[in-house]
Records
---
Amino acid sequence: MRARQIWSAEMKANYKRGMRVLPLAVFFVLAAGLPSRAQREAPKTGSITRSMEQGIRLYHDGQDNEAMDRFMEILTKGTPSEKSLANEYIQKITLRLNTGVGTLRDKGPGAGSLSDVEEVKQTQVRKTVHPEEQVTEEEGIEKDAAAAKIAQKERVSEKIAARIAVMRRSALLELQRYESVKIYMGGELPKAITINASAFFMNETVFKPGVTPVLSNLAGLIFTLGKAGCLILPEGSVQNDLKIKNIRQALALNSYLISRGISPARIDVHLTGSDVKFPRELTNISGLVILFSYENEQRLVDPEEVSPRGPKVSLGIYPTAIATRNNEGAIVEFSVLAPRNGTPSWKFQIYSVQKDSNLLLLQEISGTGAQYNQSFWNARKNFFGAPYPAGKYQFALTAADVEGRENTIRRLLVVKPEPGEEKAPQPKMTSVNTATTLKTTALKPGKALLKNKLPSKFGKKGKAGAASLKNKPAAARKAAKPPPKTAATSDGALAASAEAAVSGEAQTAVSGQVSYKIYFKENSAIVTANSEKKLYQVAETLNYYPMSKVTLTGYAYSGEPNADTMAENRVNYVVSRLTEKYKIDKERLDAQTKVSDTPKTLVEIKLVGKE
């Protein structure tokens, strides 16, 4: 009896200990079964590799450059399932790097008419047979007005379709002039284009200066294709001979097209070449391949997490200058991608830039939700009305998420003056960054470097450092005619963008509209990490404007030791990097120095137009 009692007591104790241990064991079993973020996003077949796991982790940590290198390596050496996942992440990184119809409300007398291209495609002539019935005089007037409105839309549709067709044929004819570009047509529309990458790129990511007209016509052709999707395949991806250089070149072309304002919702880069259906018209798959699809819908959802800059937006205009006397017009394309945190709201506006730099609102369209829109603007009132005066017109798109974060993009369109019309002097538009530098006082006269002699070593003075800009004495520069008093900085200045005009207008004056600042560490000629990366952007911009001159101004703070020498060392460093690493012609560069009474440790780079 006593043994049974002892045995029962031991069993009870073990049972209690087991009940305490069991939940903990179950927890460890469940925890062991929970995959990490990288494992959850791994391919369904096979285990995830260490390189893939590192790439995914770097991507989520925001280290895009390092993650891109990992994924590119996987594309060249990984399995098919790994390549597919790496391709998805490269597309996400590219979109993140490239981006930083509702109620119609016309404002102001004689507001302009922005005709929607989408309506042009959907509008058809429909004749409805009505049974004979007695109608009042008022009903008859209403029916006549409705019929007249439909007829007006049909006329606008026909005119727009005809003009866009002319623009498309012009772009195709220009592209066919180049041996490095092959076009494969399917009826009146292109189905594919192949590009000889070696004729386009100076190195992995920098375009050759002479290809600007070709790129402009390529972007123009894509604008004229409406909602058509554009799929870019790197050279070698179809033949399973993909190299990292080919991937970077495809991404560089994608970045250029997006920088021109083509919506990222209809451009994609397919880095593996698998599962791609080629049109039968495409008979040669060598080189960089661009495929066009006229059936796919746009991807208007942002795959990224919530951006601190608001929803991703795009805005493009083709061409960037028109003449009303020739019945010309411009295609205006904009898009708003829906973020993950809710429905965005957006506002599209057209302004006339007045002579005093004030902005006059001509038209405003607003709405909510993701949006893709392509319209046609001919600088006339209600399309067929009187033309607007020659000058500059600003197009602006602003989008906000549910938390109030806004993102705005602006573009300029120039309406050319009529023959014999006296061209009014335009106020010089100054960027916001330039306006800040103009406030600096007591700047000492600068020293410019000679064009044909660069310092042999960073930090050393050039022997002819006292020569002034373009060999003119400083007194002559001061005696130059000052700008008009109306040249004030306004919101219109923000619309200036490093965008080449299409065809023969690719080298329009960009003086004062493109400006970069390269920052240095205090009391040294060592550039900051971010500014070193910015030099690449400067080189790309200079390649887009190969005929433009460039002014570099090296600054130093008067409180720094040897301020004059420090300013020269900084500008010398930037000149050397642009000429030696990025192969910019030194004949285009004019350097000077200034010493400021306020803390200023930078080099300012400006495009000053063409000679």
Note: The chain is about 35% helix and 20% strand.
---
Amino acid sequence: MTATALPLVVAAAFVHAGWNLAAKRVPGGGARFVFLYYAVSAALLVPIAAVVVPVAGWSLSGTWVLAMVGTAVFHVAYGVVLQRGYAVGDLSVVYPVARGSGPLLSVAIAVLVLGERPGAVGLVGAALVVLGVFVIGTGSSTGSTNTAATDGGIARRAGIVWGVLTGVTIAAYTLWDAFSVTTLDVPVVAYLAGGSALQALLLAPVAGRDRSDTGRLWREHRREVVLVGLLSPVAYVLVLLAMRIAPVSMVAPARELGIVVGGLAAWRMFGEPDPLRRILGSLVVLAGITAIALA
């Protein structure tokens, strides 16, 4: 990975962990919470794109629309599945399992389907990242503060299941977005703006079915909605920019540095268990990040 791409990916990892911590604070928000923060993202990005696209001389094409529809579908699935995971499991299980299984699938498909060849050191680094993620995410849930499943074992198993399902959606949008911004050459700002607007539109019927509950979520969790809505696109802009200058099979695992921050922060903020196991897993992840940087 180049010296330019690595700082982008590391910054994205920290920002990503931050918005996931905010999302975990709204475990019962469901699809309506996801709608609200996608709407905030659209409100931020669409005006920016409306200025940048004409100035740059770009024009909307059918290819752009297809790419945006694809990313909207994948990201809506991701947002809803992730929020469900946070409702039934601990962040320190759901987050690392999701972020580990996603890159594992992304690397496998990038190598087997896209023909990328990251090299032996890079693949070892990717494997270490995945190993570290699962060390962090598969410990005991004794002492969990999760209210949706009071039994620790049930909460841990539910977190693993929903984490893996989230990982599938991560692999899907990672590969689709890499294809869109590289092969299709869709500008990042326009891509994110169009995608976020479509994401909000796709979830609007869900939010509209119970406007009072949607309004309650906004009133009670406005800070979390705004934080996720602003930080989520910032994190992903950094990732998409990195994908333009580095292989997706390297970017996807390297961005998982965020699970180190997220896992330890979940222990401090939510009282989630197994801090020693998470530290060990974090060290394995950092070893993988180092290998990827040297690849």
Note: The radius of gyration is 18 Å.
